[in-house]
Amino acid sequence: MYELPTLPFAYDALEPYIDARTMEIHHTKHHQTYVTKLNDALKDHADLGAKDIASLLRTFASVPEAVKGAVENHGGGHANHSLFWTIMKKGGGGEPGGRFAAALSQAFGGFAAFKEAFSKAAVGHFGSGWAWLVKDAGGALKIAALPNQDSPLMLGMTPVMGLDVWEHAYYLKYQNRRPEYVEAWWQVVDWEQVEKYFVGE
Domain 20-86 is in which class? Predict the structure, then answer.
């Protein structure tokens, strides 16, 4: 029903900021496990499995209790990682431009202020989870830190960019130094793709 997406870059493409071994394990083991367990949970719920992952999570409130936990954890994990891979690239980083940069200025007072607030949310999040830039139901940009694999889609928000702060995303290279990982990650952000998510493409 659901499939592991192909990475848009080689495992070593984000070196030295994110190491190749971490990328390979993260993609082929962690993400694959979310896909496998989601499919297993929905094998008797063909109507749910027929939905694309975003639609499934947007209608999370109507998911049967028997599979709600699996959809939250594994469906969320699949959706979150599928977006995460697409907003990074070799030679990324810098600062965004265009409509997205203007929106950041309006919402946060500029890119520097946004970066500081987003990094603070990522570094300060207790335990496993994600830092997100989202559009709320009214279209306003907000920063949210969500636990585990909870998806903004389940809460009626549209994800624009997200940073995985589970230890499996950085531990081989950075060990317990999450702030270093967060700072390094800004060097691989694909701002063109982030802007596409912002405008709804």
Answer: mainly alpha
